[in-house]
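A quick aside before the break. I want you to see a complete sequence-to-structure record at least once, exactly as it would be stored in a machine-readable document. Don't worry about memorizing anything.
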Amino acid sequence: MALTTPTATPASLGAATAEAAALLATDPAAARRLAEQILRLAPQDPRPQLILASALRRTGEPARALAILQPLARAWPRAALTQYELGLAFAAHGQEVPALAALRQAVGLNRELAEAWRALGDLLFAAGDLGGAEAAFAEHARAAVQDPALKPAANAVFEGRLANAERALRTHLTPRPHDPAALQMLGELLLRQGRPADAEALLARTLDLEPGRDGARFALAEALFRQQKGAEAAAHAERLVALAPSDAAYRNLLAACLGLLGEDAHVLALYEALAADFPRQPRIWLNYGHALRTVGRRADAVAAYKRCIGLAPELGDAYWSLANLKVGALEDADVAAMRRQLERPDLAAPDRLHLQFALGKALEDRGDDADAFANYAEGAALRRADAGYDPEDTTRLARRSQALLTAGFFTERAGGGDPSDAPIFVVGLPRAGSTLVEQILASHSAVEGTMELPHIGLIARGLDTADAPYPEALAALDPQTRTALGQLYLERALPHRKLGRARFVDKMPNNFQHIGLIQLILPNARIVDVRRHPLGCGFSAFKQHFAQGQAFSYDLSDLGRYYADYVGLMRHLDRALPGRIHRVIYEDLVADTEGEVGRLLAYCGLPFEPACLDFHRNDRAVRTVSSEQVRQPIFRDGVDQWRRFEPWLGPLKAALGETLETWRD
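That is the input. The structure line, written in tokens, reads:
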């Protein structure tokens, strides 16, 4: 629209102003030209002034934008949009403090100004204020819901009334099953409730209906990531990063997804760039430290964790990450700092439990066993309260598996399954020595170490239905289905096999619960059960805070019962599948490394190679808590370290029962 005549009417000026505002998002240069025309005719009108300032900011002239916005904000102090634009212009000009003030003023004037909350969150994140950023992003999610029918659910989510929000959304969707906004909200809610598989289905449906919903795509990528579906999650994250290359959340999620796929060089590059762009953000440094640790750059990882602590002394995860290196990275000054933080009554529960575990490790290294155990126990109790673990579920699964998986069951189902002998499954309990066995195998020229792959567990979950629960559903699998499932596992494992070697290790310890499934779908795969003294294994797991899973490990009684169920199931499988499973006793491996390695390789059908004894020289990426330990020669003095803590292990002994004496059988 051209406005060249001085006889322009208020209606035509209004239409031109609306057109200029609409152009801002797609063609800010055109919006600028039109706003300038309007101002020649109506120089005192604040609306085209605001549009012109916004266009100048968008075209890279924040100083000129500020020259318009500052007097405009003084003249109209209660105009929320003016304060919002002023905040963005200050931010673009590198003036953080006035930018924050203006954005806070904007949301104070209009709490429903969603984009101002988003801008405030972005600025707080860059400033290192993670709590403030998360609060602002939560307000953005609430305010971004425009449909009045969905506002009550949005408010309920914001206030933490998740059950109410879920009921409201399901009620809304019953007559409107194709409402993408409601589907996205419900998917995000289920993700928040820890139900990623359910969230995945809803969010995928949302994108089918409206592919341009970036929020739904981000949530879907996170849902897939939480299920360790790395390749699928990374595809969505890459699409988001392509749309918004500077977005920290998109880049961070992409790095996490690529980490699941072992794309370590790409992960490091992403975190290096993020650390350069957001040097004051402690979480970026924490994640960067994790990536450095994975590839064996220990000194750099320590430096990243220390940088994180310098930015956020209360962030317990950073201290725990130092402790988790298992090589004495915590110093006396760190111990004093952790004690100071634990005295704070306002310390968040996740920070508190991480600090308890980290302080326990530091005190154990210093020989203060009683205080170390007390801290481990306090941290574990905090974690156990949120774990939602019922030991009866594990016992029932073990008993049902034993009832089903008899020698006759397997004889009747001979044939079928993929014939590949490529996979070597290393199973057992966490902290039993499985990473050491994986490192030994991965040092062989024919074997590649991958990681704790989720694919067997995901296949098992897919077989679990109300009509045919798992493991009983295994009985109905015909030979063709068993073959197809074996092929599916191999296809999903393929992205993790970077070296093209003939064999690969899947080190998911919990797969001992799925040996029946493995036998049916991959009858030629090798299965190695790594076992450690139950008190040594149990205490080592108890004092370990796992990033995810292993919910049984935060209570000594739960641990003992889990270990006994594991031994009972493995004993049964030894009878049902004689000679099928090779057992490595950790203590024997330490005492006679060469002999045990020779027997392990023979079982796997591999010729002996000296490199398997020099496993600590292997520079492969290691993603488990034992990463630093397996980069050293076998540490024989650690075998009986648990004995120092035996006075406090009574509940573990009681729950183990006779398994304490028969665990080797």
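Two observations worth writing down. The chain has 34 helices and five strands. The beta strands are 423-428, 447-451, 503-506, 526-531, 581-585. We'll return to this after the break.
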